[in-house]
Structure formats: structure tokens, C-alpha cells
Specification:
The protein has 266 residues and is of the alpha/beta class. The strands form three sheets. Strands 3-6-9-12-15-18-21-24-26-27 form a ten-stranded mixed β-sheet. Helix 2 runs antiparallel to helix 3.
């Protein structure tokens, strides 16, 4: 079953009040609620349900049977008009479920741009996803999870509520995350433990050999030198000025470690 190229199928149900750009294509039997806004060039497959106070930017592809903008799976939810905000150029595959936020947090679930969300993924209430993220099949994000840019989560990864995964980090197949994954780190296992850095991902994004070597040094300071977290942070801070373009990587790591609420994987 392919995505429609143009037009709204006559069996689709578009509620009065919904705002769809004239270029949006909608497949058969899809239902779109009254508080939904969909930007230019989006292609919505058959049998999708898009509801809630949901805004979808231009150029997104949503495949058949997805459920987008449903109420949060939170017993405290009392019908408040919380939101789902989806950016530009995302691909959302079959049976993906993405819920709106809750008033106990930001009131919105958010996805950035150019994310690749594979089949059976669940994005719970108040999750905050950056851009250029890949979530492989059946990844499950509990409420309030934060994923920074360029994260790759392997199939069947589960992330505990309030967990955070740093930029350029990666998980292996069937990883269980109960703690935060720092930037650049590859984690795996049940429970998860740090394994190495995501060197191949960094190479694909144009990181120089020197920058990757410095990222590897930060990893060793965190995980291989027997340092306390405070000692590792000090040693990482001392890397400032050592590698061209590397200071941003050091700053990214230090800020993540400072802000981590659940502690980092070990």
C-alpha cells in the first residue's frame, strides 16, 4: 500500500476546522480531527487517525495505520488541550503511535525535522525529539523522554520515563535504558551499559579524524580511567582548545553530564 500522490480520498473524514494545505494528500479511510493543522506537501496514508491539537509541518510522510495526536496514556490527564508538534520532512511508518503532552510537563510532545520513525514505534506524552533521529522498529519511548539530534535507537530499545539520550548516541538491538546515554556513546544490553563511541556515525557526519579521536578520549575519561564523575568532568573540560572544531563537542558532553537527571549508563 503506497502513499497517495495528491488529493484527498473520498472516504477520508476531515473534520470541520482542520487546516490542510491544498497540496496535502490523504489516503482512504483516514480520519483527521478538528484541531489538526497539516503543512504543504505532506502525504498521509490510508487508515490513519490524526487528532488532538496537532500541528504537522511541511513535507512529512505518514504511512498507513499510524495514530498521531491521541490523548496521552496518563491517568492524570483530564482532557486539557495539550499539543503535538511535528516539524518538517519526517517519515513516520506503519502503526506508529505518538501522543500529545500533559500539563504536568511542557504541555506538548515535539518532534523536530528529518526524523525516520520506523514501524510500531511509540512516542509517549511530553517526549522531546530533536532532528535527524532514527528510531528502528518497535522502539518504545516512555513519557518525558528527551532525544537529542542524530540519535539512533536500535530495534526494540525501551527508554524509561524522563530518560535522555545525547546527540550522536546510539543503542544496540533490544537495549533497556533506565539511565541517560551521554553524547557520542553507543550503549547496549539489558540493563544497558556503555560499549564504545558511535565512530561510524560521526564519520558519516563529516567529523574529522582528530575530532573523533577527542570524542574517544572523552569516552575513556568517563568509562575507562576509573575516575569519579566529577574527576572525569574536570579532565574533559581540560580538552578545550586541543582540537579544531572540538570545543563544541566538549561543551556538548559537559552540559549533558551537568544536566543528567537519572545518572548515566555505566
Amino acid at each position: 500500500m503506497s502513499l497517495p500522490d495528491h488529493g484527498i480520498h473520498p472516504t477520508a473524514q476531515i473534520a470541520p476546522g482542520a487546516e490542510l494545505d491544498s497540496s496535502v494528500a490523504v489516503g482512504a479511510y483516514t480520519v483527521i480531527g478538528a484541531h489538526v493543522r497539516i503543512g504543504a506537501g505532506c502525504r498521509i496514508g490510508a487508515h490513519c487517525v490524526i487528532g488532538g491539537h496537532t500541528t504537522i509541518g511541511p513535507g512529512n510522510r505518514i504511512f498507513q495505520f499510524a495514530s498521531i495526536g491521541a490523548e496521552p496514556q496518563d491517568k492524570k490527564y483530564a482532557g486539557e488541550p495539550t499539543r503535538l508538534e511535528i516539524g518538517c520532512g519526517n517519515t513516520i511508518r506503519e502503526f506508529v503511535t505518538i501522543n500529545t503532552g500533559t500539563v504536568q510537563d511542557a504541555g506538548a510532545t515535539r518532534l523536530g525535522d528529518d526524523n525516520w520513525i520506523m514501524a510500531y514505534v511509540h512516542v509517549a506524552h511530553d517526549c522531546q525529539l530533536g532532528s535527524h533521529i532514527i528510531l528502528a522498529n518497535a522502539v518504545q519511548l516512555a513519557g518525558h523522554v528527551h532525544l537529542d539530534d542524530w540519535v539512533f535507537l536500535g530495534g526494540l530499545t525501551g527508554v524509561h520515563q524522563y530518560g535522555r539520550v545525547g546527540a550522536h548516541a546510539m543503542t544496540a538491538f533490544q537495549t533497556r535504558l533506565a539511565q541517560d546515554v551521554p553524547p557520542f556513546v553507543t550503549a547496549g544490553g539489558n540493563p544497558a551499559h556503555a560499549q564504545t563511541i558511535n565512530a561510524e556515525g560521526l564519520r558519516r557526519r563529516g567529523f574529522s579524524t582528530e575530532r573523533i579521536a577527542q570524542v574517544r578520549q572523552m569516552y575513556r575519561l568517563l568509562y575507562r580511567r576509573g575516575l569519579t564523575l566529577e574527576e572525569a568532568r574536570g579532565a574533559i573540560a581540560a580538552l578545550h582548545g586541543k582540537v579544531a572544531e572540538g570545543d563544541a563537542d566538549v561543551a556538548l558532553m559537559l552540559e549533558f553530564l551537568r544536566a543528567s537527571g537519572r545518572g548515566i549508563v555505566r
